Structure formats: structure tokens, C-alpha cells
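Private note to self, pasted from the team thread so I don't lose it. C-alpha cells:
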């Protein structure tokens, strides 16, 4: 089973925890045979918002939905596309038609059969103007969709669309439970019914979400019987519970990974892993605010930030400076893109050119009687963002910019600040995958309510590039488009791209079947198991 984040989601660190407070012990037995049973418990800094994937865009919801639902396709361990609900597919010579053959015998969690009618309904659901989703764009590219028989689904595009195949990795929703219903009022948002390896068993808001293995899963029942997500908003608290054996899994902070887990006791109970994430963190400017509408101001703020200071001081070296939305080790990354080294003098020069001067001698720049002052908001529970914000706040003060830093609980942060655009600037992150299409985040048509271009970035050339980039299958031609896209972002600086952090998970040693790969360690979660003589939980 693949842990997937289809589309680009708001980045939120998800960690693992356990509701049992007894001391963890590991007795390595002679039998290492895969066995069913035991419980895997992790913690999240925020609760899920909605378990209907079409309506959610936060990673807490996505992580859980990834175990409840399936798409037609998914990424394998090497980040290549493979079938999931689709047994196979054929693409026409002109690249305009995809014909999927579906697995037979797949059942929804309520026992109803899964058929091509569900896939067709899914297409109609995502493209329905009444569906408030951020993920309609890929499906709006379709000219026609049909289900000629229960196990065949065919989709045709009017023109080439490079992300077409992977776009069908979006989770499929059940037609028989949603057709003709107001999806915004569906009880399935709290009581989801999917085809995936796990079923929802319990959801206590703000406390925990419990999943039970699906014995009828078409790829075979997963070995681990239960998965428990506990809501623990503080990473230090999570770490304490991990060390006492109350948690099975956690995404460590760099400090925890580097300096607090190198003890014999910890090494006896846990394995640690590290690999570069697909996600990046950024300081995003609300371009609807007059303060940030001059690109010289945004460039100046980027020059004022010492990214390496953040990487060394906050990440402890476990990360790389970000120059745009792509990882440095991917084919789409622009190696020649403009970079902004730490240069406070250049920052002051650009601000002066933009009309900002300290006319009253109070140490804060002003213009037209207004001080250069604003607030950066970020979410509670992410120490990396909070500490990065503190460094940024200090560096901005040195160039005469007054910044307040506000840390807000996740649900409130989204509902009252990000979704309605009620912020000056924000430290956040995006995570995605190998497909480089960035239409949903950067196209000017995606600036509306609950859309992902919530900073209000609008650039006609970028719009054209994003439209052309998704229309070609030629890799070199696509790269030329996305190289130019990165060049424009570098010039415009709607975000100050901060860093790409390494994932630093710790996992209890009793779990087996973990095989690190380019996709990380969670791609084969259904294959994880605990030998019978090491199982800790009887439920």
C-alpha cells in the first residue's frame, strides 16, 4: 500500500504515537515470519479536517485517506507509475485516449462492488461546479469519459495532457453512497467508505483516529491489524511518549534525530531513517497586500534571510536551500536559476529604491507615513517553522523591518487565516511528487476561495508556461518550460523559498518489511508486519 498525497497539500508534520503508556520492550525472537496482528500508532500535530478526499487539502486528512481509499494508479517505490485499482491501461498513439482495465472483485468497505461506474461518477464529481474542490483542474481537461462495461473505463482528451495518467491516482469515491447527494453535507466526511486496506473504526475529534484492517482488501489484508493516529500538537510531548514506548513511529526534529536519540536505550528499541523530502518550506507573501506588491520589496526580504543559517541552526544540516518548487535531484530542477545569497546591504538598497527609508530615526523603515511592519503567521506544532520564523524576524529587524510572529492552532490557522486570505505573510510548505505540473498553486485562475494559489500570484507568462508545460510529453521541451517558470519565480519572489528538509523518521524495531527507496519508507505499509512473538497489542 502506498501512502500518497495526490495533488499538492498543505505541509504538516505527521508523527506517530500510541495510547498505551506501558514501557516498550523488544524481545527479538527466532521466528521472523510475516504475521497478522498488532497495532501501529502514530501521532499528528493536527486533526483531520475531512475524510472525503475531494474536499480536503491538508496532509493530516490525506495521510489517513491514503489508507482508506485507492486511485486507479499510484507511484511505486522508484516513483514510477503502476496500477492500483487499474489492472492495466492502454494509451492511444496520439496520447489522447487512456483505456483502463479495472481489477475484478474489488469491494467497497460496505460490501458493494466497485465498478467503472464509480470511476465515471468520480470524474463527474470532481468537475461538478457545485463541488468545492481544489482538484478539479486535471479532470476539466477531459473531453469525454465513458464506462463501456463494468471493468473498463475510457477517457479522452481534446489535446495532449502530460499529467493525464497520474491524475487518475486521485482517490475514488463511492457512487452508490454519494450520487444525488450534497457532498458538503455528506456523513462520509466523518464516516468514510473506501476500497482501501483500512477502514475507519473510531474518530474522537482532537484525540485520535483509529483504523482497522480490511479483511476483504483486493491486494490482500494488510498484516498490521490496527492503525491509530493520536492528536498530539506538541513535538516535545510526542518525543517523550516515543521514548517511553507509547509511540511506534515519529518524524523526529533535527535536534532529536542528531542529539537526543544516540543512546543505547533508544537504539535498542528504534531504527532511524533520513532522506530528502519532496516538499519544501517557504515564506509566502500575500500579494493582495499593498506592502508586497513591489517585487523589489520581496527580493529585498529574500536577500535579508540567511537560508544557510536556518539550515544549520534549525535543521542542523539535515536539508538543502530551496530555490523554487522542485527538488535539486530531479530532472525538472533548474540548475541555472537565480539564487539570493544573504546580502543585507543589497536588501537595504532595494528597499530604498522602493521608497522605504527611516525618516524618523526609530530604526524602522517607513513610507508615506506608514512603518514597514507586518505579521508572519504559521501553524502550531511545527518547531522548524516557528524557529525559522524567529530567525527571519531577527534578520528583518536588522534591515529596518518590524515583524511580529504569530503561532496559531492548525484548524484555526486554516479556517480563519489561510482559506480567507486573512494574513500578511505565512511560513508554510507544500509537498507533491515527481510530476512537475504546478498549475493548481501558481495559475492565476486558482486564486479564488479555498484554492491553492491563496497568496494571489498572477503572471500572464507563468499562466502560459503552465498551460504549455502540461501539453507536451517531450521531456526536454517540458524542461524548457519549467526552467523558465523557475526563472520567473526567482525574479518575482512571491515566496521566499526557504529549505527542503530531510525526513527523519524513527520506527520501533519490532516492525519488519521496511525497505527504504526513492519513495521513502511508507510506500509499502501494507507489507509491514510484526513477528508473532514480538507483537505488543492483542487488539
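Design output:
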Amino acid at each position: 500500500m502506498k501512502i500518497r498525497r495526490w495533488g499538492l497539500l498543505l505541509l504538516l508534520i505527521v508523527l506517530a504515537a500510541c495510547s498505551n503508556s506501558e514501557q516498550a520492550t523488544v524481545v527479538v525472537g527466532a521466528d521472523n515470519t510475516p504475521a497478522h496482528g498488532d497495532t501501529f500508532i502514530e501521532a499528528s500535530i493536527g486533526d483531520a479536517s475531512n475524510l472525503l478526499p475531494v474536499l480536503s487539502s491538508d496532509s493530516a486528512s490525506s495521510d489517513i485517506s491514503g489508507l482508506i481509499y485507492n486511485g486507479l494508479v499510484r507511484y511505486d517505490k522508484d516513483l514510477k507509475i503502476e496500477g492500483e485499482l487499474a489492472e492495466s491501461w492502454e494509451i492511444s498513439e496520439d496520447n489522447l485516449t487512456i483505456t483502463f482495465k479495472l481489477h475484478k472483485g474489488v469491494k467497497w468497505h460496505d460490501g458493494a462492488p466497485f465498478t467503472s461506474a464509480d470511476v465515471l461518477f468520480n470524474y463527474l464529481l470532481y468537475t461538478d461546479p457545485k463541488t468545492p474542490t481544489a482538484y478539479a483542474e486535471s479532470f476539466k481537461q477531459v473531453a469525454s469519459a465513458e464506462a463501456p462495461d463494468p471493468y473498463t473505463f475510457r477517457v479522452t482528451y481534446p489535446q495532449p495532457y502530460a499529467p493525464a495518467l497520474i491524475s487518475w491516482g486521485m482517490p475514488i469515491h463511492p457512487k452508490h453512497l454519494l450520487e444525488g447527494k450534497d457532498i458538503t453535507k455528506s456523513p462520509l466526511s466523518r464516516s468514510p467508505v473506501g476500497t482501501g486496506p483500512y477502514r475507519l473504526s473510531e474518530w474522537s475529534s482532537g484525540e485520535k483516529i483509529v483504523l482497522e484492517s480490511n479483511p476483504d482488501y483486493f491486494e490482500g489484508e494488510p498484516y498490521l491489524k490496527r492503525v491509530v493516529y493520536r492528536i498530539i500538537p506538541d513535538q516535545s510531548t510526542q518525543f517523550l511518549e516515543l521514548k517511553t514506548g507509547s509511540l511506534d513511529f515519529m518524524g523526529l526534529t533535527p535536534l532529536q534525530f542528531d542529539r537526543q536519540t544516540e543512546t543505547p536505550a533508544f537504539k535498542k528499541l528504534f531504527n532511524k531513517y533520513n532522506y530528502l523530502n519532496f516538499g519544501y518550506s517557504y515564506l509566502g507573501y500575500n500579494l493582495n497586500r499593498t506592502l508586497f506588491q513591489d517585487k523589489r520589496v520581496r527580493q529585498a526580504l529574500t536577500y535579508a534571510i540567511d537560508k544557510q543559517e536556518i539550515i544549520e541552526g534549525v535543521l542542523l544540516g539535515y536539508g538543502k536551500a530551496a530555490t523554487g518548487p522542485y527538488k535539486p535531484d530531479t530532472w525538472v530542477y533548474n540548475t541555472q536559476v537565480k539564487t539570493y545569497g544573504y546580502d543585507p546591504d543589497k536588501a537595504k538598497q532595494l528597499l530604498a529604491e522602493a521608497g522605504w527609508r527611516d525618516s524618523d530615526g526609530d530604526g524602522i523603515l517607513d513610507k508615506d507615513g506608514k512603518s514597514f511592519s507586518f505579521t508572519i503567521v504559521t501553524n502550531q506544532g511545527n518547531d522548524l517553522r516557528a524557529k525559522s520564523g524567529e530567525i527571519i524576524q531577527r534578520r528583518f529587524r536588522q534591515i529596518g523591518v518590524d515583524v511580529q510572529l504569530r503561532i496559531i492552532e492548525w484548524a484555526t490557522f486554516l479556517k480563519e487565516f489561510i482559506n480567507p486570505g486573512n494574513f500578511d505573510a505565512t511560513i508554510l510548505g507544500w509537498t507533491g511528487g515527481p510530476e512537475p505540473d504546478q498549475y493548481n498553486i501558481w495559475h492565476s485562475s486558482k486564486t479564488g476561495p479555498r484554492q491553492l494559489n491563496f497568496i494571489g500570484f498572477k503572471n500572464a507568462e507563468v499562466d502560459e508556461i503552465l498551460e504549455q508545460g502540461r501539453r507536451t510529453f517531450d521531456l526536454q521541451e517540458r524542461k524548457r518550460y519549467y526552467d523558465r517558470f523557475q526563472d520567473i519565480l526567482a525574479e518575482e519572489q512571491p515566496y521566499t523559498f526557504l529549505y527542503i528538509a530531510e525526513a527523519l523518521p524513527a520506527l520501533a524495531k519490532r516492525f519488519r518489511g521496511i525497505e527504504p527507496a526513492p519513495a521513502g519508507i511508507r510506500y509499502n505499509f501494507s507489507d509491514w508486519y510484526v513477528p508473532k512473538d514480538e507483537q505488543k497489542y492483542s487488539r
